[in-house]
Amino acid sequence: MENPGKLFFFCGKMGAGKSTKSRAVAAENNAVLISEDNWLSAHYPTQIKTFDDYIKHSNLIKPFVKRHVQDLLSIGINVVMDFPANTVKQRAWFISLCLEVSSEHELWYLDLTDEQCLSQIAKRRVEQPARAMFDTEAVFHHVTRYFEAPAASEKLNLVRVAG
């Protein structure tokens, strides 16, 4: 494989702007954008009602997404994944995906405060009423308990964007 594509993925608390930034990075890098929200809503339109449902169904699509992304990277196509890389375990999955096809990666870390994220979530609730059930302060605090900022020991090609 001469020139594998590059994988771009994102880390940041809920409401940090990962989906918005993923669209911009995809456009800037002539990349295919793959959105977890789109895959989940297409495959499980009525099954995700709780955070645990999300975790379960997210794990179900990962093997299919991984193979698809690796196929694209292997033929030189850049890929932007709008999937969370908010824990060491999640980031390790992205890295293994790249290593298996000798692809480069770039992790974009959107480093915003809780206050900035909550403000953006409140705005998103108004702009996207369908998300209002999940876009709450309570869900933000629940999800943020699991958030792990990227560490130097992970040896990531990191682009940090401060709020």
Output the keywords.
163 residues; alpha/beta; Rossmann fold; 18% strand; P-loop_NTPase; 1-deoxy-D-xylulose-5-phosphate synthase
Please characterize this protein's 3D structure:
- With 163 residues, this protein is α/β, with parallel strands linked by helices.
- It has one domain (8-62, 78-88, 105-162): 3-Layer(aba) Sandwich (Rossmann fold).
- It is built from six helices and five strands.
- It has helices at 18-28, 36-43, 51-74, 88-99, 114-127, 137-144; strands spanning 6-11, 32-35, 79-84, 104-111, 158-162.
- Strands 2-3-1-4-5 form a five-stranded parallel β-sheet, with helices on both faces.
- The longest helix has 24 residues, at 51-74.
- The radius of gyration is 16 Å and the shape is globular.
- It starts with 5 loop residues before the first strand and ends with a strand.
- The model has no long low-confidence stretch (mean pLDDT 92).
- Pfam families: AAA_33.
- This is 1-deoxy-D-xylulose-5-phosphate synthase.
Shape: globular
Mean pLDDT, all residues: 92
- Cα-based radius of gyration, to the nearest Å: 16 Å
Helix/strand-derived class? alpha/beta
In angstroms, what separates the terminal alpha carbons?
38 Å
| CATH architecture identity | 3-Layer(aba) Sandwich
CATH superfamily heading:
P-loop containing nucleotide triphosphate hydrolases
pLDDT under 50 segments (min length 5)? Answer: none
CATH fold label: Rossmann fold
Element-level helix/strand string: EHEHHEHEHHE
Query: Which range does the strand content fall in?
Result: 15-25%
Tell me the major beta sheet.
5 strands, parallel
Q: How many structural units, i.e. domains?
A: 1
Strand order of the largest sheet: 2-3-1-4-5
| CATH class category label | Alpha Beta
Protein name: 1-deoxy-D-xylulose-5-phosphate synthase
Organism: Alteromonas lipolytica
InterPro entries: P-loop_NTPase (IPR027417)
